[in-house]
Amino acid sequence: MTGVNSEHGSLLVRRLTHRYGSTISKSGDFPLTTEQLSELHNPKSLKAFNKLFQNKEENLYNLLKTDKLNGITIPDGQSYKKQERYAIYSDNRIPERVGKTFLQLVWEALQDKTMILLSGAAVVSFILGLYELLYQPPQYDPEGNPIKQVDWIEGIAIMTAVVVVVFVGALNDYQKELQFARLNKKKEDRDIIVIRNGNELLISIHDLLVGDIINLQTGDVIPADSILISGTCEADESSMTGESNTIKKVDLTNSLKTYEELKQKDPTNQTLDIGYSAKNGDKVPDCILISGSKLLSGLGKAVVTAVGTNSIYGRTMMSLKVEPDPTPLQERLSQLADSISVYGCVAAMILFLVLFFRFLFYTLLPGGRFHDLDPTQKGSKFMNIFITSVTIIVVAVPEGLPLAVTLALAFATTRMTKDGNLVRNLRACETMGSATAVCSDKTGTLTENIMSIVRGIFGDSRFDDGDYERSTQQTSHDIFNTKDKYCSPELKNIVLSNIILNSTAFENKDYSPEYDDDRNNNDSREETTGHEDLMASIERGRIEAYIGSKTETALLNMSRKAMGAQFGDLQKMRSKTQEYFPIEKVVQIVPFESSRKWAGVVVKLQDSDTYRFLVKGAAEIVSSECQYRTLSDNSIIKVDNSITKDIKKEIDSLAVDALRAIALSHRDFLNIKSWPPSDFVEKTDNDDEIVEASPELLFGKTLTSNGKDDSMILDGIVGIQDPLRKGVRDSVLQCQRAGVTVRMVTGDNINTARAIARNCNILTLGNFSEEGRAMEGPQFRKLTKEQRIKILPDLRVLARSSPEDKRILVETLKGMGNVVAATGDGTNDAPALKLADVGFSMGISGTEVAREASDIILMTDDFSAIVDAIKWGRCVSISIKKFIQFQLIVDVTAVILTFVSSVASENETSVLTAVQLLWVNLIMDTLAALALATDKPDPSIMDRKPRGRSTPLITPSTWKMILGQATLQLIVTFTLHFGGQRIFFPDIKTITGFQQQQLDAMTFNTFVWLQFFTLIVSRKLDEGDGIRNWRDRVTKANLDFFQDLFRNYYFLLVMAFIGTCQVLIMFYGGAPFSIAPQTPAMWQTAILCGTLSLPVGIIVRIIPDEVALKIFPRRLFNKLNYYISFEFLRHKTTPSDEESLIPRGEDDTASSSTSAFY
């Protein structure tokens, strides 16, 4: 026989080699490649099995060089790593994720384009400052005091800003890395029983090889992709496929047999495979086990077909190792920093050329001011010109921009951690502020992934344990614990005995009742929940009270929470029935079978000749056999047509809401001396066979006794559902109000998916039935890119979807210009989480793969934390934009003021000295960043629409404020600088050097106070966006710059610090700051001129953006910008294919026309 198998195997190898060509391994012993074996599991396919193994089970063992009974053979004393099997297929190890070190994070931060720019500016500024200090002749103020050369400090200041930004950002990232490493520190290594060399061995799951025969039992997590070859079991594949229903597994032999029968009955069905049904409704049996899924019940043996990085779990894990795309804000900030630097360089070049030509004129022309100077002095004058020009660049360089971003992100992520969000990637925080779409997994994300009894009726008393739209105020706890009101003790006893005894589920020894209290505390999201408590909860993971089928665990949980059953007593209640029920013993068990859709148990009642048959199962099946119904007072009534309609209506109402209807019933056999009754025994030819009552006869056969029909009695109907997480409905509504579209992606069928989407407000009663609101994954997959783009604006539910469908959905939405967040808890969600702009995973119930793929971990498993992420993300984005608005106002004013005053000066010097500019830079960079980047979210922040990916960083309203405030500041400073003598010394023709220094100091003082009040104005940003009516813009929210001023103590401290330091500088700055004592009139002028920023700010904010855009010469600006910023030399980005297919409306045109604003 062995020779025949060997000959047949060799023939099959030759056929495979001919069919697959070079894809086959060169090894004659193992002709199958890992890619061919993976076709069996992704997707699960018996069609692929038949294609690969010629419709024969024995070919599987032949080609994998294994034996169904004895497993693989490894010579004694020899390591499996020396085997050819290992060389081709490897073992079950997946490379561990190595966290980045602190120095690696520092180096990555230094690679940022803005950091490189700032570092270069710091080096140039420092070198020129040292040159000025060491080689330039000393300069003196009007009183004859030497002016200290401190320009080199500017270089040190910029480099300090770089160091602070880099180290703060790296430290934040490093802390998140440590926390994430702690989350994933679970012991993944465990032992499993395998059969090798004909013996059962206990080995590490990491040492599993392809061809190994593994023993599986209830509660096991499948360690590698495999095929069930004996036994039957039920598996939970929700973490891998998103399918919340239990998947029944049948051994390979029966699967292939049934599959062939179905193909013969339905030969034209090309899609017939695992997961599909034939015309008659029979499903294709499933024998494929996916790594990472969990056995809920049953025993079996399986042959391993893929391990390690070749398994479904491993491939998903390895696919996560890709570099993330830059965030929308990163892209726009990088462009802004580039543009500011280009403008600064252009201004510096123009200034240098103007001053240089004037220098040549003074030097070469006979009688010129510099004509008679010696070469050293001429060289010194030239260096002055060069240093003044470089000063323009230093002033323009936005060294505070990365600091503001880092501070805002650090502040927000710290707050988010307190709210239960662990932000692994700081940039993800601000990206959430721009989010326009959320693609959410259903199972474990919107729902709890715990099947529960949520609604039902016992006797004639209804209950509803839901959190919303409840059909009745009574809960299950109420009806079972309110004495003699809703449920009699006798009915409660019958129901409880049915749940406890008619079940194969058992208690989880790792569970503790206090875990439920922890979960409830997490759901309440109180800030008193400590960070360590959250981390401990995540490390422990979700531990359920019972292990078994989801229906049975749901019923057991109800018995524990509503009927008084205590955790830890389940086994005693089953073994010592007399102590808990009026039941003497269990005499027969009828296990659940999918063909009959019910399970039962026969018990003998205590001290009587009565036997009771307890049944639970599919409501439509069980109720159809019930001719009687129990009422709440334990009386029994005959089921007539009216009651039948009521029962059907009850079942239909549960089905409409996507609840699985389960009925509980019983039947009493009176005056029975021994079991089974002769009328219910099936005759067999085997006299030695144990005699039991026929399940079908027990369930369906009616007897007439005492003048009435004896049949099943209906005790109750319950609806089982994976319930929504607390707060999901409100969170979805908040997202919609904030302009963020929530889409649900699930493995459920489309009707169930629609019902759940309606329950959580993703669909409404108005659009529930609309075509195009929901679609199945296979249909979505077949659409062309143009068709997907056409239907996506209306699509809200994607049912029966695969991980690939979710990935395509995210990819298409991103291509359409959306900023996409994806949520998920399972391994199947990982590709979409990684591809999305922001990926959210569940901290407690999420798999390691999902957490690895995500940017933000919801530590409380609370979907509503996503709303907090949007809120803080918008706060970060707004804070950064407020800072940019303030910095550009100062930048524009300082650059133009320095430029004009240097050109107008005979000495080529600016009205603002290097030390004064250093203080101004400190105000507009470090201090302003601290003040504006630490603000908290506005109460109305979630009422605004998201900005999306293509919206410019600087909107028209921001440009309007920049130009308005800069114009004010330039008018004031130019007036004081050029007309100060006529204002303050009108009677003096030629003022002294001291008086000129007074005027220059007053210009500096006014300039600083203008920035002081502009900082207050910058607290408002886009509150008036979209309001076109002048009168409607006059609101407190739009114009009150002091609104909620005291919610940010950092801002108040910074303002107090700036004001105090400026006063001290003006009184005691003296020679270092080139300050001369100010008269009271000068002080009044400086402060009053500074306060002009407030009324000008109000006027600017009242003017609608549309009016400003009409006045503003956009075409001229865009043309100048194109050439001045060397836009024509840059790489021009083209819109994605998806974006180019989106129809443009008037609003889009207007938006694109403002894209010059970055």
TrEMBL record:
State the compartments where it is located: Membrane; Vacuole membrane
EC category: translocase
SMART domains from the UniProt entry: Cation_ATPase_N
**Gene Ontology biological-process entries:** intracellular calcium ion homeostasis
Catalyzed reactions = Ca(2+)(in) + ATP + H2O = Ca(2+)(out) + ADP + phosphate + H(+)
Alphabetized InterPro entries for the sequence: ATPase_P-typ_cation-transptr_C, ATPase_P-typ_cation-transptr_N, ATPase_P-typ_cyto_dom_N, ATPase_P-typ_P_site, ATPase_P-typ_TM_dom_sf, ATPase_P-typ_transduc_dom_A_sf, ATPase_P-type_domA, HAD-like_sf
Domain of life per record: Eukaryota
Q: Where is the Cation-transporting P-type ATPase N-terminal domain?
A: 51-130
Q: What keywords appear on the UniProt entry?
A: ATP-binding, Calcium, Calcium transport, Ion transport, Magnesium, Membrane, Metal-binding, Nucleotide-binding, Translocase, Transmembrane, Transmembrane helix, Transport, Vacuole
Segments of this protein annotated with the region Disordered: 511-531, 1137-1158
This enzyme's EC code(s): 7.2.2.10
- How does the UniProt record describe the way this protein sits in the membrane? Multi-pass membrane protein
Molecular functions per Gene Ontology: ATP binding; ATP hydrolysis activity; metal ion binding; P-type calcium transporter activity
Instruction: State a GO cellular component annotated for this protein.
Output: vacuolar membrane
Family listed: Belongs to the cation transport ATPase (P-type) (TC 3.A.3) family.
Q: What does this protein do?
A: This magnesium-dependent enzyme catalyzes the hydrolysis of ATP coupled with the transport of calcium. Transports the calcium to the vacuole and participates in the control of the cytosolic free calcium. Catalyzes the hydrolysis of ATP coupled with the transport of calcium.
Q: What is this protein called?
A: Calcium-transporting ATPase
Gene (UniProt): PMC1
